[in-house]
Amino acid sequence: MKKYRNLLTLSVVVFVGSLLLSFVTVQDQKDPAPWDVPEKYVKMENPYAGDESLDRVGKILYIKHCRSCHGNNGEGDGPKAASMKTKIHSMTAEAFKKQSDGVIYYQSIIGRDEMPNYESKIPDEEDRWALVNYIKTLK
């Protein structure tokens, strides 16, 4: 009899828990505000533009630091993306691609809000540009 009582109690707990969870909704993510990129970065030139020897480094850095939020292809669909308060826009979108390399550098390395700063995690300037170059190849 005790076995059935435990089973009944467990069933009630699961049912009530499921019922309560049905009222919980995923928080809507807000659209990010436009980036306020300092003029220094807007005009910054990429000294490694087109340097294919950095492709492997850029990809490794992307996998290590970016993929968990931005996803395999830069679509903003990584495993951590759903837990963010702000939507992650696609790096493959035309609007993103039209940005200068310096702007992408600023967004990727300096960051803001939920986008972390990577200056200490990627201290080498060549590596930073390798990451920018790789991001620009995402399709």
Automatic annotation (TrEMBL):
Alphabetized UniProt keyword annotations: Heme, Iron, Metal-binding
Molecular function as annotated in GO: electron transfer activity; heme binding; metal ion binding
Domain Cytochrome c: 53-139
Lineage top rank: taxon: Bacteria
Pfam families per the UniProt record, alphabetical: Cytochrom_C (PF00034)
SUPFAM superfamilies: Cytochrome c
UniProt xrefs under InterPro entries: Cyt_c-like_dom, Cyt_c-like_dom_sf
Name of the featured protein: Cytochrome c, mono-and diheme variant family
The organism's taxonomic lineage, starting at the top: Bacteria, Pseudomonadati, Bacteroidota, Bacteroidia, Marinilabiliales
